[in-house]
Amino acid sequence: MIRVGQGFDVHQLVEGRPCIIGGVTIPYEKGLLGHSDADVLLHTISDAVLGALGLGDIGKHFPDTDPAYKDADSLKLLQHIWQLVKERGYKLGNIDSTIIAQRPKMAPYIPQMVEVIANVLEAEERSQVNVKATTTEQLGFTGRGEGIAAQSVVCLVKVML
Ligand SMILES: Nc1ccn([C@@H]2O[C@H](COP(=O)(O)O)[C@@H](O)[C@H]2O)c(=O)n1
Ligand SMILES: C[C@@]1(CO)OP(=O)(O)OP(=O)(O)OC[C@H]1O
């Protein structure tokens, strides 16, 4: 049995914040604003996984009104969500994500992101985790560099015992 889920998220780019995407800190003049570390890519993966399980979304599990999650490490939030997957007897089929950003250039950091995500989601092969990036050709809020968006689709597979 398989379950699929998708996630979409946006965070504003501001000065004075680190730019953490896919668990990787990217050197850039601005960073993402949020209650947590605002890791837009990991948030979409979290939402996709929760969606696949029919468990709502990241804000339901880690409310942005709870001081416990102020500047929270999104990798830890995803680790917690992955436990829910394992408890329900699922493993990763594959995940495909897209980061939508005019800048910074993501390509040099994507292999590191894949490594981080593959470790948390306990991927058996690197090809189960795919991360892409695209600009919006300078159009819209991403094109103007006001924010970064991301989206992810995940497939979970029931473990056969
Ligand atoms: N922030 C980004 C955006 C894009 N890339 C890479 O550049 C390629 C071309 O982007 P287009 O928007 O013109 O399609 C894209 O395929 C990515 O490989 C990137 O590294 N960082
Ligand atoms: C991750 C959480 C944690 O409080 O905060 P934010 O960084 O604001 O991120 P968002 O994508 O709005 O999801 C909501 C929250 O769960």
From TrEMBL:
Residues that, per the record, bind 4-CDP-2-C-methyl-D-erythritol 2-phosphate: 9-11, 35-36, 57-59, 62-66, 101-107, 134-137, 141, 144
Source superkingdom: Bacteria
EC number(s) recorded for this UniProt protein: 4.6.1.12
Annotated residues for binding of a divalent metal cation: 9, 11, 43
Cofactor dependency: a divalent metal cation
Site feature: Transition state stabilizer: 35, 135
This protein's pathway: Isoprenoid biosynthesis; isopentenyl diphosphate biosynthesis via DXP pathway; isopentenyl diphosphate from 1-deoxy-D-xylulose 5-phosphate: step 4/6
Molecular-function annotations in GO: 2-C-methyl-D-erythritol 2,4-cyclodiphosphate synthase activity; metal ion binding
Co-factor remark: Binds 1 divalent metal cation per subunit.
Presence of keyword Nucleus: no
Name under which the protein is recorded: 2-C-methyl-D-erythritol 2,4-cyclodiphosphate synthase
Gene name in the database record: ispF
